[in-house]
Amino acid sequence: MKKLRLITLCFLATAFAWKASAQQKPALSWKDVSKWRSIKTYTNALSPNGQWMAYVMGPVEGDQEVVLRKVSDTTIYRYPCGATAGQVSFSDDSRFMAFRQSPKDAEVKAAKKTNKVLYDKLVIVLLSNNTKTEYDRVRSFAFAEKTPNWIAIQFAALETAPKDKDAAKGTDMLVYNLLTKKSFNIGSVSDFAFNKAGNWLAYTVDASGQNGNGIYLRNMLTGVTSAVDNDKATYKSINWTENGTAFALLKANKNEAYKSEVYSVIGVTGLKDDTSAKTIYSSLTDKTFPAGQGISGDRRPYWSDDLTALFFGTRILEKAGKPKTDSAKTAPKVGPPAALRTDTAAAKAKPAAMAAVNKDDIEKPDMIIWNWQDRRLQSAQQVQETSDKAFSYLAEYYVPAKRLITLADSNMRTVMVAPKQLYAIGVDNSKYELMSNLNGQSYADIYLINLKTGSKKLLFNNFYQTGNRGFSIAPNGKLGSYYQDGTFYTVDFESGENHNLTGKIKASFVDELDDHNVKKPATDNMGWSADSKYALIKDNYDLWRISADGKSATALSDNWKARNLMVNYRFNIYPDDKGTDLGKTQYYSVFNRENKQSGIGKLEGGKIKVLFIENFTYNNLVKATNAPVFAYSKESNEKSSETFVTANTDLTAGKQVTKNTPDQSKFGWSSGVKLITYKSTNGDTLQAALYLPANYEPGKAYPTITYIYERLTDNLNTYTAPAFPSGGFNKALYTSNGYAVLMPDIKYKINDPGMSAVACVVPAVQAAIATGIVDAKRVAIHGHSWGGYQTSFLITQTNIFKAAAAGAPLTDMISMYSLIYWNSGGTNQAIFEASQGRLTSGFWDNIEAYTRNSPVYNIKNVQTPLLLLHNDKDGAVDFTQGIEYYNGLRRLNKPVVMITYKGENHGIAKLPNRKDYAVRMMEYFDYMLKDKPAPTWWSKGVNRIDMEKYLEARAFDSEN
């Protein structure tokens, strides 16, 4: 591959050649988007033998289909799968494929009007002859993984089934032999799971009246079923060990002494047809169990690898109150009137009289108490109340000693169990939580927990966690790697020794692109080798293999910084491996920071060899489970993602096996993308991506949308599918409709987020104009959220833009600083000081920076018309921020229109609203940049009383 020389303007992706006589294709319209067909994300599946590829394809709105393609030839089968795209599954022997067929789009829309319940079908396909077997009303299904002739199918409950809280949850389940076509029906099944080998099926029964309830075990080789445990109880959360020789689950019994069911943990080992060994642990029979707590029903229990310990959650177990009685029958006898009693007698009678009052009749205040010492804001506690109530503290029952070991508690809420279950890492941030929620700088005390004894040892006091820090534990469970103050270290859990890993390496392990207010943010810790001998840690470019004691370090990529290459991440093609097995061929995503090319590298001979790197984005590399067959995806700005399959370990001769976006050829599409290199006014060398319009003609200048957020050029070769986005802007639609789109990178200076945007974006626009592609008189700017803030600020500092559209912008940094981020309930203070705000301290100590970077304090300078989107239920940027800016501009008689979608959050979720805003934004830009007629809603507005008729007249009909 030839080395590309950095130049101020480089052509990428396409060798541009134009003919004046070329016939122009029509532009995409928003109505075309609804019918746009494409492969649905995350639906690709490669069969275990590597001979079949399946995926789901269909329009943005409407019915989808499963496409099955034979890799070795052109055989293709298509199966309708309804309005919802689901995952396709293959049996382990690759003989069968199965998927759920959801109801059709028309059926779903009709059912919404009548509240009719709809059900999925299961479709099983015999691949050798394309014969189908179908089952109606299916709730779930699973192949027996390594015993592929079996499949379990659970059916949905009948509509006549009781639906009250205590009703039985079990339904029919079919165990079906795919080869013999024999089936066995099991009734009242509530939960089921095959072990990995597929030779055992565990299932629970939840029947009417709890008759026959229990946990059952079926031997899939002999057909023998045994009852492991039976009781008037409910059973759930079956969890097999990885090797499939044991499993754990929960059992719930009603107990009148408590408000909710009381859980116990069952661990099953020594699997046999008749009698399997079981361990039952109950909080009610263990006097050492924490007072007031019980076993949680919201955390799945599991066995340790050596089957000596059961892990589960604990939580508060509320006792039931005394049963209510008839107040008339239980009221005490009333004595003489109070006026005739002594004061003492009256005082003694008062409690008795009050006792007769039903507590439900007492009016209680509805209030919240906000105390300055609360570690979490009351609003955060409200938002997180459900998760707090369901939160469970990790505990362990050590079977040999019959001993409970409590691991987590109200202070040490986070406990990470290490592989092999010898140790755990406990994180206690209780002393630092309040300040962390205030300034975003996170600290914690880190403990090492011995899982055999329960002893806790302080590893690190006041450990700084912000900025890509954390523990990576080796597969042997005895070593951990961590980062502090620019250096990676290891700690040996057994000896307590710490070793410096990266201190002697002549490279920086501080992320050079992270410009937040964070102390020396870390580069990527990429885990451990499978044998636990080496830590795998990346600097800003190269990946290093470092011995656990830090004495040796080898770069697996050879001085890639000199080539502007970086190791991006490892493809996980061996999902069962623990750590990176350096004895196997490993593959890595590689990326060129300078020209944005990407590719795939292969680790062999101790070095990563770049197999290919091009003006495409390569991704999704997988290996067939049972064969040396590989599949990967490839896309660019102009070409949608396609999957290629090859049997070559160097990934050569890849064969395209998908046909994505078949309608793209009918429409005008972006003619390519150019990468512009320029200097910000702060002196930083930066880049911007300039996407060309469809039917681009050299020498002609085009109206341009500048879209901003933070750093965007790394996505230079990423495909944008036509869609109705939550923020209104879709690059593919705009380039198809004759716009150029500019996406610059922004580098920030602390305490100057807005001014940094000005320093980066304005020179980017000027550099784009200098190419001759961008019409200097027809440039607009748009951004959403943080991009919306920067858009709102930029128009207070420059008149280079003819129009602007800002979505959900923060506009007043002072008022915003102490407002609530309602989606989480936390304050914005932490976001300002350690995240996107990039400010230091509160505004009272930094008032000039806050005002200098706030749109509202510079509002008099605005001369650019603004389309403002802010929804009334925005839980990220408070609605008042939009109102404040809108009213300020309106007071100054500046052209501004604010659109609010009632009930919508930070982005637009409802499809009719997404459609509406996408159309309005383009109408606005077409008027401002293309001299099309102004839409009425912009030029005149719409009175509230006329709004309903106006919206009916404008309703977006995707069918027309």
Question: Could you outline the blueprint of secondary structure elements for this entry?
Answer:
Blueprint: E1 9-12, H1 30-34, E2 37-39, E3 45-46, E4 52-59, E5 64-70, E6 76-82, E7 89-90, E8 96-101, H2 105-114, E9 120-126, E10 131-143, E11 150-155, E12 171-177, E13 183-194, E14 200-205, E15 214-219, E16 225-230, E17 234-240, E18 247-253, E19 262-269, E20 277-282, E21 293-295, E22 302-303, E23 309-316, H3 327-330, H4 343-355, H5 378-383, H6 385-390, E24 393-398, E25 403-406, E26 414-417, E27 423-428, H7 433-439, E28 443-450, E29 456-464, E30 472-473, E31 479-484, E32 487-492, E33 498-500, E34 525-528, E35 534-538, E36 543-547, E37 553-555, E38 565-570, E39 586-592, E40 598-604, E41 607-614, E42 617-623, E43 630-635, E44 642-646, E45 655-656, E46 673-679, E47 685-691, E48 702-707, H8 731-736, E49 740-744, H9 753-770, E50 774-784, H10 786-794, E51 803-807, H11 813-817, E52 820-821, E53 826-827, H12 829-834, H13 847-852, E54 866-869, H14 879-891, E55 896-899, H15 911-930, H16 936-939, H17 947-954
Parallel strand pairs: 48-49, 48-50, 50-51, 51-54, 54-55
Antiparallel strand pairs: 1-46, 2-4, 3-4, 4-5, 5-6, 7-8, 8-9, 9-10, 10-11, 11-12, 12-13, 13-14, 14-15, 15-16, 17-18, 18-19, 19-20, 21-23, 22-23, 23-24, 24-25, 26-27, 27-28, 28-29, 30-31, 31-32, 32-33, 34-35, 35-36, 36-37, 38-39, 39-40, 40-41, 42-43, 43-44, 44-45, 46-47, 47-49, 52-53
